[in-house]
Fold:
Amino acid sequence: MEQNNNNQGNRYFNKSNQNLIIAGIAIIVVVAIAIIVPHLKHSASDTTPAPAAVATDTTTAQSSEGAAAASMASWNALFQKYTGRLVVFGADCDTTPHTQNQKKGTTILLMNNGDVPHTITVSGTSYTVGAYHYKTFMLNTPGNILINCDAHNSVAAITVQG
Structure:
């Protein structure tokens, strides 16, 4: 009987630990979002003339600079809109993904997820993308497009199919 009580106690203890772990992870996610969201901005100054191979998309959703909930909703909408069509840059110009295939006419999101601005060059045209900012461009010409970040060459590549 005593061993039976210990097994029941362990079962409740494990469920309690599991609930605490889940609650802890939820708190960490909420805090991380609260810290990151205020840094996500897109302003009119982020629009740069497009190079010959690409054109700036002026219909991009903008993240708001109001309440954290509104900013997060806008950022989530933007991320969902460009899922599968984005290049994310880290603080050291590391990218995700490194390569991708897209069709002519696709709009791509370049997102600087680092805390320092980057100069991102696409098909010979440079864009200054501030920390936690983004730019968009449209793929107009089939072929291979190399993307450079600061002094790092070919950090990402997009193959544009006609």
Remarks:
- The chain has one domain: 40-161.
